[in-house]
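Sorry to interrupt, but I need a hand with the structure work. Go ahead and set the record down below:
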Amino acid sequence: MKWLVSLVGAGLVMITLRDLFHTLWHPTRHGGLSRLVMTALWRLARRFRARRRVVGLVGPLAMVTVVSMWAVTVILGWAIVYWPHMPGAFTFSPGSEAAKEPALLDSVYLSLVTVATLGLGDIAPAESWLRLVSPLEALVGFALLTATVSWVLEIYPALTRRRVLAIRLALLRDSGPTTQQIDCTAGALLLDSLATEVVRVRIDFTQYAEAYYFHDGEDHSSLAVMVGYADALARRGQAARRPEVRLAGDLLAGALKDFAAILDQRFLHTGGTPTEVFAAYADDHGRSRAQP
């Protein structure tokens, strides 16, 4: 029975590590529990009246919630591993009152101290298998800390790329380029560079799906608003006279179509055209699309 309880704890730890791996390191970045938490917080926040303020906190709050969930489940999992063997399989420092405490409390305390790599030493494993297993928890704790830092360092550059594209589109919209300015070599280069940036953002949404749950703030920095203008530029490019401009327009239209497919497949599930997907994207972020 003791070993069965320990196996349950080990299973809980493995589930957490799997979720962490799929959220941060798997090529498709399909997190399980973490994705459910973020989706639930996003949908809950959108129900509040103070929509923009509340939704703006969802991304950072969701990341904190997910990391806290990982930490709690790892601590509880290892505590369940220790619990059936406490206190007989452990040694206690002289004068320690820990042995007089409930076994479950001591197990949680030991797990918390170990995962935080504090190494207080007042409770130490005595049996050989525990002396081998216990340091693994410290390694898991170190991996969790490293993963959290790397997650933060990865997600914010992705958000920056998305907002840079949105602001660039806003500046183009405000400048109001004419048909002649688009139907030239410079216009072809412009459309081609926009297609490249759209592809980068599309990859960001694939690798960092949690970026979707970050609100961009003002309209001119919101890709959910400005992506409609990119669609209009692509159509103008496709209707141009110069072949290089038409080619660049086709590239931008293809990049936008692929981007819409990712948005719909992973987040929106409308099953509609790219135009309908972009409208749903703007609505989901509490905005209206920019008009061409």
Notes: The chain has eleven helices and two strands.
